[in-house]
Input
Amino acid sequence: MTVVRETVRDHVRRALTERILSGHYAPGERLVELRIARELGTSQGSVREALRELEASRLVESEPRRGTRVRVVSPREEREAYFVRGVLEEAAAPAAAAALAGDVADLRCEVAGVLRACAAGDMAAQAAHVYAFHRRVVEAAGNEVLLRVWESLALETRVRLRLARGDIDPAVVEASYDAIVSALARGDGPGAGRLLRTHAETFAPPDAP
Output
């Protein structure tokens, strides 16, 4: 029973995330649990659980007597999140490089997935591969607290928001990931850390004019 409930919640969360990122729900729009449950053919409880997760990811916000609404995410907030992500990944890189011991095949597969999705214009798949790549690095460090803090940044969602701006050069993406993977492959943790931090800062949203 628990597995089924979690699967439904995950489905609802992903459906709501997709609707928010695609613009189906506008920033500031109220999300009515009962209406969403009817549209998705699920229980109101599953929708409530999914909305709690989205609130933790800061995609939505809840206020007394106003209900749950889509958050307005500013470029400044995105830049700050990317900066923190870079710091965390730089901290994880030395231990990750030692743990990987030159075995970066999985990382190369994720990079290939990023580039395929980029060529196909599939932002959801691209964001998923980006998330998987960076999570593998942080997870390899073996620091559960660091991983939890990193996950709290909701990288996959933030990447989707960033990709929607449409100003990222695929050649720059490929070169950046190649340098990171090469550093990890040769066991250069500090070098990989610096590259990961630069990567995060490079692809952060630009300052508002």
Notes: Residues 2-70 form a domain with the Arc Repressor Mutant, subunit A fold (CATH 1.10.10.10). The chain is about 70% helix and 5% strand.
